[in-house]
Every structure is written in structure tokens, then in C-alpha cells.
Design the sequence.
């Protein structure tokens, strides 16, 4: 897995909207080189947690650190933010070719790397679509392009918000295999939000359950599913409705 070194630390982190607290995480460490799955029902606060980790929002209260530095209005700077990329459930692609979409982030950083773009497109089974306009792609193809666009930047941290929701088994398999490959070969830290417990079992080193904004349980994935400590976790794994 990783080196047991925390890239992020969370302590008493709260986020809310319109006076309503939607996330209240007492303690969470995200370790270098791990795949961490966060599962839970809709509205549990999973996507909110990802947005905080991606520095897209500031928390209402509590402490969030990145590489041991507190996240604040002054930090992280641009260089630190570029160490993290996020892939959303519904990718927003440019009305350009697949190749131009994947190369876009590199171009913003002043890099021209056609070889890297071609390599990652091939790895994700997209090389035959290089010159195809991105807006004509299927949902699964578009999601793989979004993943390629994020990973060609070689981030330290990859944040995935329901990356395979509503996709067919072929695209799910392509995406999951590539996530595992990047984690193993580049030691990329991955945080994946998913409502699919089977995906968490397949991919994650550790799994956590969010309910009503609280992190109910977090443990190595095999223990999480085989010997859960909390009754809410056992109920969620069984498929019972949990609020």
C-alpha cells in the first residue's frame, strides 16, 4: 500500500450550507499511496468531503492539513493545488478532440507532451478515438477521457466522485484496472467516493462509511466488510436502508 504517511489530516472538520451542517468528521488521515474508498447513501456528505480535499471549498470549522500544512485562505498555493486532481461523476469536456482534451491541462502548465497523451489514451483503450470530437463520445468513453485528462498530469492525489456510476461493465472494468495500475506504478494516492460496496471491495486498501456527515467507521477493507465494528456498517453492507 502506502508508506503510512498522512498526506491529508482532518480534525473536527465541519461544512454546511444555508445554516445546515452536512459534514462533521472528527478524525481522518489519508495515507500516501493508498486507495481509500468512502461509501454511504446519497446525501451522506461524500461529495462535500471530496470538494474540501480538492480545495474547491473552505470548511466552516475544524482543521484540514495537506502535507502537514494547514489549509487556509492563503494556502495551498497554485503549485500545491496542482498536486491534486479530481474527476467528477459527470465530466465536462471541451468541444475539441479527445487528444486536445487530454492535453489541455498540460498546455495550461506550458507543457507539450504528445507522447504522454498518446500513451495514456492507449492505456485506457481510447487511442482509436484520438481525433474524435469529445462531445460525440458515449458516457463511458467520456469518463475515461476525463480520467486520462486528470492522470496525464501525474498528480500526487486523485479524487474520484462516483467515477463509474451508470456505466456498463466494460467501462467500469477499464476504469478500475487503470486506477489500480496508476496506484501501483506511480504510487498515486486515490480517494474514491462510491455508493457501490462491490467497487470498494475490489479497489480499496481501506474503506470508510459516511452517514449523515459523520465518519461512522474506517478500517482495512477486508475487516470493514467481514468484521464491521458498528451496527450501522453491518446494516449498510447488508443493504438495509440507513439514514
Sequence:
Amino acid at each position: 500500500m502506502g508508506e503510512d504517511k498522512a498526506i491529508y489530516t482532518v480534525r473536527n472538520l465541519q461544512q454546511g450550507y444555508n445554516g445546515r451542517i452536512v459534514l462533521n468528521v472528527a478524525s481522518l488521515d489519508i495515507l500516501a499511496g493508498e486507495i481509500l474508498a468512502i461509501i454511504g447513501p446519497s446525501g451522506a456528505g461524500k461529495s462535500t468531503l471530496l470538494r474540501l480535499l480538492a480545495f474547491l471549498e473552505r470548511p466552516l470549522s475544524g482543521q484540514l492539513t495537506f502535507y502537514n500544512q494547514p489549509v487556509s485562505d492563503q494556502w495551498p498555493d497554485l503549485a500545491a493545488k496542482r498536486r491534486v486532481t479530481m474527476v467528477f461523476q459527470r465530466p465536462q469536456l471541451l468541444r475539441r478532440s479527445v487528444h486536445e482534451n487530454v492535453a489541455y491541462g498540460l498546455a495550461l502548465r506550458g507543457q507539450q507532451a504528445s507522447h504522454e497523451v498518446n500513451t495514456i489514451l492507449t492505456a485506457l483503450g481510447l487511442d482509436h478515438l484520438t481525433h474524435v470530437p469529445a462531445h460525440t463520445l458515449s458516457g463511458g468513453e467520456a469518463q475515461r477521457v476525463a480520467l486520462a485528462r486528470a492522470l496525464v498530469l501525474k498528480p500526487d492525489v486523485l479524487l474520484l466522485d462516483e467515477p463509474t456510476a451508470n456505466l456498463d461493465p466494460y467501462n467500469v472494468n477499464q476504469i478500475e484496472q487503470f486506477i489500480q495500475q496508476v496506484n501501483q506504478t506511480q504510487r498515486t494516492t486515490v480517494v474514491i467516493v462510491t455508493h457501490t460496496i462491490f467497487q470498494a471491495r475490489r479497489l480499496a486498501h481501506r474503506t470508510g462509511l459516511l452517514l449523515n456527515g459523520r465518519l461512522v467507521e474506517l478500517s482495512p477493507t477486508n475487516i470493514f466488510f467481514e468484521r464491521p465494528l458498528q451496527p450501522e456498517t453491518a446494516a449498510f453492507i447488508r443493504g438495509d436502508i440507513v439514514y
Remarks:
- DSSP finds nine helices and ten strands in the chain.
